[in-house]
Amino acid sequence: MTRFVHPLAMRRLNVGELLDSLDGAVIPGGCDDCDAEQRVERIRHLGRVTKITVMHDDDCPALARKTGRW
Fold first, then answer.
1. What is the pLDDT of residues 29-64, one digit of tens each?
2. Is residue 45 one of the residues assigned to a domain?
3. Distance between CA atoms of 38 and 61, rounded to whole angstroms?
4. Domain count, the chain
């Protein structure tokens, strides 16, 4: 039986390669109070900067507390 091995798994990635592979990823979670998701974005014109944004639900109580809506 042949086992498929993803090309990225065949060697150890450096940090830049790892973050490049995550660019555009949407990852569930990030908030205990809502069904948030995390979005990963490489900011290429700033060099080695990666931004992870937590996207909360509109009615999230944690986001409301943080932004002063409550």
1. 999 999 999 999 999 888 778 999 999 999 999 999
2. yes
3. 17
4. 1
